[in-house]
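Problem: given the chain below (137 residues), write out its structure.
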Amino acid sequence: QKIVNRFGENLNGFTFGIWGLAFKPGTDDMREAPAIYVIKELVKRGAKVKAYDPKAINEAKECYLKGLENITYLDSKYDVLKDSDALLLLTEWKEFRSPDFDKLKSLLKSPIIFDGRNQYNAFNLKKKGIEYFQIGK
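Solution.
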């Protein structure tokens, strides 16, 4: 809902970078992973999605998001940010804890993060000029 509040009901023309597909870090388990529901809703509203996860990409492609259009899987957390309108953090993998926020800001079209794991410090990001939304655990 916070994404819709920020970008509108119709997400045609928007691309969202996703960090994390797995239900929890350290596994490729996607059963009931928030990423499934979030990605399907974004695509249903017309958005494109670029996704990265250290272990769950094959699980997503072959099972949970099989046949879903407008999703691209990439091999680098920073590659998903190129030309994306915002970043959605959905799994708290260790490699996502301390990203290079300056690099993140330079790659995104708009420096916007929707943090589904409440992993980052809102005050520090706002000082860096990054729009930040906690979307909760």
